[in-house]
Amino acid sequence: MLVTLALATVPALATSKLFESAQLTPSGEYTFGIEGPAVDRDGNLFVVNLGKPGTIGRLAPEATTSEKFTELPDGSVGNAIRIDAAGTMFIADYKKHNIFAIAPGETAPHLVFHADDMSQPNDITLSRDGTIYASDPNWKARSGRIWRIAKSADGTMQGEAMAVPRAMGTTNGIDLSPDGRTLYVGESNSGEIWSYAIEGETLTRPKLIKTFEPNTIDGLRTDVSGRLLVARILKGTIAVLAPNGRVIRDIALKAKEPTNLAFGGSDGKSVYVTQRQGGFVESFRTDVEGREHCVQMGKC
Questions:
Q1: 3-state per-residue secondary structure call for the chain
Q2: What is the percent of the chain with per-residue pLDDT over 70, rounded to a whole number?
Q3: d(Cα 92, Cα 78) in Å, to the nearest integer?
Q4: What phi and psi values does residue 294 have, to the nearest 5 degrees?
Q5: Cα–Cα distances in angstroms (integers) from residue 93 to residues 99, 134, 216, 229, in the given order
Q6: Nearest to residue 123, comparing CAs of 260, 6, 7, 245?
Q7: Can you name the residues that pair with 30 across neighbouring β-strands?
Q8: Which of 31, 166, 253, 271 sits CB 3.0–4.6 Å from 49 for a disulfide?
Q9: What local confidence, expressed as pLDDT, does residue 16 receive?
């Protein structure tokens, strides 16, 4: 693990200028597979692949370096993390087609869902009722699906690929609108972002809201105003979009390969970005609380 380049210090995020990003963790701390940032109610930031594949790192509030939080079972590699209002952490294991959960106060991952016919769970998002929506890209075929995974009557998590009225590309970044009725999905191969109405186990009313250059979008998140924040991998920015796809601003980053982002901080207005180029986390302040943070805090 390379830690000798730890020249960056923690920015004073509470007083930083809005949308001005600064490096938060040392270069080389995470692998090329750095992804899946998520922040819990206590302000701890969790990121996959600290030092080696299959790990999850934790960056405590005000800390400048990460520590190992846990390790997934042999052969499993995390790609996305989300944390619900009860504090349960869900991890998408793209290598073994699993969803793991870690209960509050614990570090051991427990298998809650597996599907052999999944290509991979890439990114996930959580609804207020605990339903998991998972993107499932098939990179070789340049296609993808969305899975809906929910608790059944017997308490186990059951899931299936959702019906959708169009052929999807390589589904990647995914998040819900503040009211939970719309699902936003980025398709990496085409650079397109689509919105869908959620009707039970079916996605309806597909609408193309924005097209970027092919292969330049990765993770995305929404805020409580309905805006989308999109990681522009290879472009080195976070694009802020209105719900209709209009670009409101581009936030310049410290490196060119952002893979994903998460909201955190005491007010949910600190944004943490995972950078594949350099293997570090950077952060900036925004003006609107993240949807997921609002749900976690029981305000939404």
A1: CCCCCCCCCCCCCCCCCECCCEECCCCCCEEEEEEEEEECCCCCEEEEEECCCCEEEEECCCCCCCEEEEECCCCCCEEEEEECCCCCEEEEECCCCEEEEECCCCCCCEEEEECCCCCCCCCEEECCCCCEEEEEEECCCCEEEEEEEEECCCCCEEEEECECCCCCCCEEEEEECCCCCEEEEEECCCCEEEEEEEECCEEEEEEEEEECCCCCCCCEEEECCCCEEEEECCCCEEEEECCCCCEEEEEECCCCCEEEEEEECCCCCEEEEEECCCCEEEEEECCCCEHHHHHHCCCC
A2: 95
A3: 5
A4: -60, -40
A5: 6, 11, 23, 24
A6: 260
A7: 50
A8: 31
A9: 74
**What is d(CA 81, CA 113) in angstroms, rounded to the nearest whole number?**
14
Phi, psi of 284 (to 5 degrees): -145, 165
* pLDDT for the residue numbered 9: 38
pLDDT in tens, 128-171: 999 999 999 999 999 999 999 999 999 999 999 999 999 999 99
Give the tokens for residue 148.
């809906």
Query: CA nearest 145: which of 158, 133, 157?
Result: 133
Closest CA to 172 of 100, 246, 230: 230
Q: Summarize pLDDT for 214-262 with one digit per residue, the tens.
A: 999 999 999 999 999 999 999 999 999 999 999 999 999 999 999 999 9
* CA dist 117 → 164, 173, 202 (Å): 17, 20, 19
What would the two tokens of residue 175 be?
A: 């998040």
Q: Do 160 and 147 contact (CB within 8 A), yes or no?
A: yes
CA distances 250 to 56, 240, 246, Å, are: 29, 6, 11
- CA quadruple 23, 60, 293, 89: dihedral positive or negative? positive
96: tokens are 């073994």
Q: What whole-number distance in Å separates Cα of residue 33 and Cα of residue 98?
A: 17
- Quick one: pLDDT band at residue 95, thresholds 50, 70, 90? very high
The whole-number average pLDDT for the span 40-48 is 97
